[in-house]
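Box 3.1 A note on notation
Throughout this textbook, protein chains are presented in two layers. The first layer is the amino acid sequence; the second is a token string describing backbone geometry. Keep the layers aligned when reading.
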Amino acid sequence: AVVSTQSTGIKNTIVSTIKSQLNNVVNTTVKSYADVAASSQEKVVKELTAAEASKSVVNEVALRLDADRVERNNKKLNICVQKVPESKETDAKKRQIDDLQFCCTTLGMDAKDILSCHRAGRTDPNKPEYRRPLIVRMNSRESVHYYTDNGRGNKVGDYWINMDLCRADREANFLARQERNKRRATAKNSKPEV
């Protein structure tokens, strides 16, 4: 009976210690999220219990990562061509054939490398000069890398050929460009004049 009482006491001590540490971790997670979130989101987080807040944050991040992975996988064989003039044809099939011919003749793409092509977005009658991006589906990753200069982007005449990136990758590239430009500006300003 003494051993049973001691093991119950040890068990209760361990459980209370784990609960206390778990509450500390949950509170730290909620505090970190609240610091990053906007003021309106901070109000919502304060109203939620610590467990609900940490669970919702983890679920939201997991969903976003899954969505990015699916979008990245869907776009891995796509090339995005900017500034391509719109076809004057009224029939969608004829416009698509015009775009395919443009890729082969003007951009120098081999027809065997192209599976399909389409325009992204809608035409806007208020902006007749706007040119929708042309999305070209290639048959292999090698073709994508060949025409995009290994993902760095390629300019053929007035037209830019880039990989069709998912939103997360576009945002990451944008932030990296901003940081690179900031470092260049700092380095340029710190050079001694000769």
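The radius of gyration is 27 Å. The longest strand covers residues 114-119.
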